[in-house]
Amino acid sequence: xxxxxxxxxPVVWPPVWMVVFFALIYSMLTVGLWFMxxxxxxxxxxxxxxxxxxxxxxxxxxxxAVVYALYRxxxxxxxxxxxxxxxxxxxxxxxxxxxxxxxxxxxxxDAAVIVVLTxxxxxxxxxxxxxxxxxFGLTWLIGMTILxxxxxxxxxxxxxxxxxxxxxxxxxxxxxxxxxxxxxxxVIWWGxxxxxxxxxxxxxxxxDRLSVAASGxxxxxxxxxxxxxxxxxxxxxxxxxxxxxxxSRPAISVSTSLWLSAxxxxxxxxxxRNSGMDAEPGLVLFYSMAVALIRVGIYCSSVQPPxxxxxxxxxxxLILPGFDQIFVVPLAVVLAGVVGGTITRWSGPWHPLAExxxxxxxxxMSLAGGPRLKNWMLTGQLxxxxxxxxxxxxxxxxx
Length: 399
Hints:
Layout: H1 16-40, H2 42-48, H3 51-76, H4 82-90, H5 108-123, H6 130-150, H7 154-166, H8 175-197, H9 202-205, H10 207-215, H11 219-223, E1 225-226, E2 234-235, H12 240-243, H13 254-275, H14 281-299, E3 303-304, H15 309-315, H16 321-324, H17 328-345, H18 351-368, H19 373-379, E4 383-384, H20 391-398
Antiparallel strand pairs: 1-2, 3-4
């Protein structure tokens, strides 16, 4: 039995409709310019060779490469096709075998398609022949990075989080940029192989649980309902929904907070070096206030103190440790932002490093600072906000 070549798959050729569509668009532009040359002579020829027409041809070829890269991902990656992933999970397929519908990684047919687009760009469109190559490569790499996040391959995604912003650093236009891009491809290749080994992924293995979590209803609210003949079931809604168990994600660990903070600082450093901006102490303070407000908003989105500010003033106490403890970390973040702005002002030429380190520190304080949301929701002095009259409660009142 012959074994298929690892870089061969006849099913990845672009579909006929895609080829015909872009061929018609490019042909209409070419034929239109040709008729203009016949009708108006040299004036039309100069227009056909103008930078605007060349730019339009380059856009058409670049869009064709982008669409083909998206087609390759959407058509052959199981995470993009829920029915395909569900069928694959029930089949005897294993990660040691090739994907049934076709490979996600590069094969020689991809190179053939890009070579054709590059040849058209070089000898007919007279534009930069690297446009199709760059458009296809960046689209495929960015798409695969997003898919690795969807299937939750966190080690590969963490490495890509440090590699992608490195392309913004000065000097990447030389050969070092190709080294970084090659490293990105190797990390994506490793992450894709690991994702196949961990298949089925959580998103395809438990669709009912994810759909329940996305709908905002808890597991208990699905059972506590009224079945009305000839109508949709009525869920009891609030307060049963607020008091019932939820499908919640675990709290952010210390290691995760550390890595996310390092990513925030690295992205900040690469952006500052790329833009060449001067020291901006106000941006550090603004960032500290933004993350502090986001943290308070997350904690107080569905709860409120036992009594309002006027009740604290008239009846006391002014401070509720069980509730007000969530404001300690945001205030510390803002104070650290004020101090960090002063440090940035006196950092001189080292301001990119100083600002990026401050962003990392502020991010870590906001992510890792206590109390944990889950523990505070269970033990804090708080009360749930009264939910507005939703569809479930409205139907219940009508019953």
